Amino acid sequence: MFIDRSMTREVITVSPETGILAAQSLMARNGIRHLPVIDEDGILVGVVTDRDIRSAMPSTVLSEAEKAAEQRRLEAMKVKDIMTVNPVTVSPTQTLEDALLLMQKVKVGAFPVVDQEGKLQGIISVRDLMRAFVNVLGLEEPGTLLGIVVENKIGQMKRIVDAITETGVSFGSILVSRVWEEGKRAVFPYLLTNNISKVKNHLREKGFTLLDPMEWYLDRVPKRKAEKE
Amino acid sequence: MRRTGLLYDERFTHHKTGPEHPEAPERLTALICGLADAGLLAKLIPIPATAARLEWIEKVHSPEYIHSFREACTLELNALGCADNQICPQSYETALLAVGGILNAVDMLMEGKIDNVFCAVRPPGHHAERREALGFCFFNNVAIAARYLQIRWEVVRVGIIDFDVHHGNGTQHIFEDDPNVFYYSIHEHPSFSYPGTGREFEKGSGAGMGMTLNSTILPGQGDDEYRRKITRDLVPAFDEFRPQVIIVSAGFDAHSADDMSYIKLSTEGFSWVMGTVFQMADQHAGGRLVSVLEGGYSLEVLPELISNHVQILLDL
Question: Do residues A83 and A150 both lie within one domain?
Fold first, then answer.
C-alpha cells in the first residue's frame, strides 16, 4: 500500500511569485486547502494553505482608509511571503500507514509527495486516506457488522473465523479494537449477509460473547484519557 | 369498512430457500392461518396471481439480470449471487407470480374495484437492485409496482413508505433521481444492520434530490423513536409531496421478538405506524394504498402483526 497508488497526481500548484489573492481563489474554485509551491523545475519549495492566507487577511474592524491601504498590501503579497518553507513531505514509496501516523503526529491534513530530487509527484490528503479505508472496511458492499469480545490471546481470531465460516457466510472485513478492557479485545467482523441471526445463534452456541451494539467502540484511545483532555 | 384486497397464492410457498433460512415458506402459511383465525379472510377480496409480463419487470431490472435469474433456476443452482439468496427451480416462476399478482392488485385499485390491498408475497423485493439479487430479494416488487403506476396508470406522484427494519437499498437506488417517486424508509441505523445504506444524509440525486428520506433508529430503541421520527420526518414530507398512491414495503422484522435486528418495536408500535400511514393515504391519496410484504421472520408474532395490519386496512 504505497502512497503513489493512492495519491492525487494531477496536483494544482502555484509558483512563489503567485499573488495570494489568486492562490486563494484557486483553492476556493477547486475545493482544496493545500497548494504545493514549485519552482520552474518542478522542485517543491513550499506549501501554502487556506489558513496561511486567512491569517494574512486584515481584521474586519478597519476604517475605510485603512481598508484601501490593506487591499493594496494584499494585492502586492505573494505566496512566497506567507508559505511554509520546509513543509513535511513524504515519498512515493512510503506507505499509507506512514502517512496516517505522520498526519496524527504533525497535525497536517495533506502532504506533498516528492521524489529524491525534491520534485513534486503528487499530494496525499486525508481524503485519499479515507477513500482507502472506506474500501478496506468494505463499507460499500452490503453486509452486517457484529461485535464479539474475546480474550487477548493467540488463536481467538481463528476460532471466530472458523465459527463464522461454518455458517457459510463470507467476510467483508474484520476490525479489531485494541483497548476494550484489561486482557480483552473486541473483534468486529463485517459479514456479507442479511442472515445475521443464524450467525449470531451459532456464535452463541460456540460460547462467544456478543457485544451490545450500543457498546461497540472502535477508537483506540481509552475513554478515561479522552475525558481528561 | 373498506374494500380491502388480499393477494395470496399457495404457489408463493414454492420458492424454497433450504434449511435454516429465515425467509421460509412457513412465513406465509403462518400469516394466512393468522388471518383465518382472526376471522379476517372472509372479509378480504381475493386478488389472483398471474405471471407478470417481462415488459414490466424490465422497467426496473436489466434483461441480462432477469435472464441470469431464469438460468440459475433452470440449472438448479442453489443461490443467485451471494449465498443469502437461496433459490430452487421454482423461484423464478414464483417471483414472476408475485410481481404479476401485485400488478393485478394495482389494476383493481385503479379501476376502483378495491380501496386498498395487502400483498402476502414471497420472495420479498426491496433489496433487489437493477442488476443484482441481494438480501433474499430477486425482483423489486414495490419498484415495479411504482413504475407500473407511472406508466400504465399515468399516476404522477407515487409515495413509497418502507418500514422493514432493513434499508431498502434497491428501491432507493432505482428512484433516487426520480422527482416523482418519494422513497421514505425508517430502519435500524446502517452501522448496525444490513445492508449498510440508508444513512440520514442520503437524500436523492439530480432531479430527485430531496425525494429520498431516511430515518435511522439506534439499537435497543422502539416505539418512542418510531413515533418521533415518523412525525418529524415522514408526515411533513408527504404533506408537501402529496402522493396520489402510497405503496408500503411492509416488513415486520423491527418487532422486539424478531432477532434479525436490535430494534424493539412493539405490536402496538406497528399498529401506530400503519395507522399513521393509513391516515396519510386518506389525506393525500384518496385512501389508495398498496401494502407489500417484505421481511418479518418471527413465526410467533407474524400472524398477529399481519392481522392487525389488515384490520387497519379494512378500517374495522
Answer: no
Tell me if B182 sits within 8 A of B238, measured CB to CB. yes
A219: alpha, beta or left? (left if phi > 0; alpha if psi -120 to 50): beta
For the residues B71-100, what does the mean pLDDT come to?
97
From residue B53, give the alpha-carbon distance in Å to each of B7, B50, B59, B97, B135.
18, 9, 11, 10, 24
Shared-domain flag, residues A18 and A108? yes
Range of the domain at A153: 138-228
In chain A, positions 152-211, which contact chain B (CB-CB < 8 Å)?
168-170, 192-198, 200-201
pTM, rounded to two decimals: 0.90
The phi, psi pair for B249, rounded to 5°, reads -90, 95
Instruction: Dig out the grid coordinates for B201 from the structure.
Output: 444524509
Residue extents of the structural domains in chain B? 4-314
pLDDT at A58: 75
Q: Tell me whether A64 touches chain B (CB under 8 Å).
A: no
What tens digit of pLDDT does each residue of A90-119 get? 999 999 999 999 998 998 999 999 999 999
Tell me, yes or no, if B297 comes closer than 8 A to chain A by beta carbon: yes
Q: Does B127 touch chain A (CB under 8 A)?
A: yes
CA distance B194 to B216: 12
ipTM of this complex? 0.85
Query: What CATH code would you report for B4-314?
Result: 3.40.800.20
Q: What is the pLDDT of residues B288-315, one digit of tens each?
A: 999 999 999 999 999 999 999 999 999 9
CATH classification of the domain holding A98: 3.10.580.10
Residue from B40, B101, B106 nearest B246 by CA: B106
Partners of B61 in the β-ladder: none
What per-residue confidence (pLDDT) applies to A228?
41
Last residue of a domain, one of A134, A164, A183: A134
pLDDT by residue (tens digit) across B217-233? Answer: 999 999 999 999 999 99
Q: How many domains does chain A have?
A: 2
Q: Cα–Cα distances in Å, from B7 out to A97, B90, B244?
A: 56, 19, 21
Beta-bridge partners for A226: none
Q: Is A18 found in the same domain as A66? A: yes
